[in-house]
Amino acid sequence: TGKDITCRLLVIGAGPGGYVTAIRAGQLGVDTVIVEGRKVGGTCLTIGCIPSKALIHAAEEFDRVAQLAAGNNPFGIAAELPTIDLARTIQWKDEIVSRLNSGVAALLKKARVKIVTGRARFVDGRTVAVETDVGTQIVRAETVVIATGSAPVELPFLPFGGDVISSTEALSLTRVPDRLAIIGGGYIGLELGTAFAKLGSRVTVVEAAERILPQYDAELTQPVSRRLKRLDVTVLTGTKARGRDGSGKLLVEGADGTTTKIAADRILVTVGRRPVTEGWGREELALDMDGRFLRVDAKCETSMRGIYAIGDVTGEPMLAHRAMAQGEMVAEIVAGHRRQWDRQAIPAICFTDPEIVSVGMSPDEARAAGRESKVGVFPFTANGRALTKHAEDGFVRVVARADNHVVLGIQAVGQGISEMAAAFGLALEMGARLEDIAGTIHAHPTQGEALQEAALRTLGRAIHM
Ligand code: FAD
């Protein structure tokens, strides 16, 4: 064991929350140490956002050629049936991940952050013991940031292991399973389910709620449901997984109480993620909880002075960009800046086919919040660029205050529209009014014009509709 380390700031966990905190603090001259038990980059970079998008992209490429080969295209293109060597795909994905892992490590180094590899555990509110390969390293800090993230929820009657897998294992399969059962029709299950369906798996999704992606309204999810149907994905809503029979078949119970058996080569359980609030010595501290999450205030400070928490361990939405924004803010607070959480909206994207983007309030949420609102929808069927991409299913929807036309929310569903999230977020963060969006010259022909047209339509003066 080395000599004890004393620092100004200690960050526990190097996911998007933790590593951004450490880089920003380092840039501001704060003497910072970050502890990570696995690889820097955390869930997002190693087993979450990035690897899932790599797999989704490879599956899209495969499907594109498969559709051409099947003659399912209006372009007059003929192609041979594609094949995939999933082991190679996973190798490509792993290369991207390790490039990004090294990139984050280099950025931490450039910001003069010290990285300690090992599992951290609080001894008291200012002291942490890290179990490293070479023994216990004691780190003492004036300020600590807890950024321990989240982990997949396990079903007690379907524990992970063997053919029961979490998203982590699904992102490293080297063979496409013939039959894939997915428990949980949230965004993680459906993103992965869509990818494997495109790669040739026969996919069954089991969802307890009445519809898939229950956090989005039905108008937004309908194009996704239609596409899943065309991909031959069986979606069983109002259905609960119950366990397995003697031969290993999955037992599911429908809303009417009848039990069905599903044969599957792999059972992917994506029923949610739990904040990692255990395993790092929380019992040594006196931290208030907010349900299953750590309670934090508008500065991300916990109930103990000098101990902050950010990212998935602090609440919904459990998304990488929320963790990063909190991390940047906390670093600046530690460096003495006056900051607090004042964000207007956190975008959420579901990378299914088509993709769903939601920023701010939906019409239902505006109504529930008692806001009088105007809503305008512009479908991609009336957008030239969408037609040239053979991607006309979907729309952009704008929700604005009825009185002063300040935008409350923007949602969209459509192929490849995740890149439009930046424009939606900017509009909300700048407090844009419908007239601001309508008066912005949007480049033609782009799918982004649907945003301008949706704003115009809300004002009752759409041009192309
Ligand atoms: P994490 O990224 O979970 O990082 C926490 C880190 O802390 C881990 O590296 C862990 O090893 C470390 N740690 C924990 N305890 C200790 C300890 N005691 N000592 C040392 N280290 C410790 N989000 C998006 O925004 N967009 C997406 O497209 C997206 N796709 C996803 C796809 C999948 C399959 C999954 C699983 C998640 C996805 N997410 C996505 C969610 C995203 O990954 C998380 O919101 C994000 O990683 C949270 O960041 P974090 O810093 O809070 O925690």
Note the main attributes of this structure.
465 residues, alpha/beta, 7-stranded mixed β-sheet, 5-stranded parallel β-sheet, 13 helices, 24 strands, 31% helix, binds flavin-adenine dinucleotide, Pyr_nucl-diS_OxRdtase_dimer, flavoprotein, disulfide bond, FAD
Q: Note poorly predicted spans.
A: none
Biggest sheet: strands, sense, closure?
7 strands, mixed
Structural class: alpha/beta
| Radius of gyration, whole Å | 24 Å
Number of strands: 24
Proportion of beta-strand residues: 25-35%
- Our count of helices gives 13
What compounds are bound to the protein? Answer: flavin-adenine dinucleotide
Give the overall pLDDT as a whole number.
Answer: 97
Distance between the termini: 70 Å
Helix percentage range: 25-40%
Shape: globular
Structure report:
The protein is of the alpha/beta class. The chain has helices at 16-27, 42-47, 49-69, 86-110, 167-170, 187-198, 218-230, 320-334, 363-368, 384-388, 421-429, 434-438, 449-458, and strands at 5-12, 32-36, 114-117, 119-124, 127-132, 135-146, 150-152, 164-165, 179-183, 202-206, 234-236, 240-244, 250-253, 259-262, 266-269, 273-275, 289-290, 293-294, 307-309, 348-350, 355-360, 373-379, 395-401, 407-414. Strands 1, 2, 3, 4, 5, 6 and 19 form a 7-stranded mixed beta sheet that branches. Helix 1 (16-27) packs parallel to helix 8 (320-334) and helix 3 runs parallel beside helix 6. It is globular. The N and C termini lie far apart (70 Å). Bound molecules: flavin-adenine dinucleotide. Flavin-adenine dinucleotide binds next to helix 1, strand 2, helix 2, helix 3 and strand 4. GO terms for molecular function: dihydrolipoyl dehydrogenase (NADH) activity.
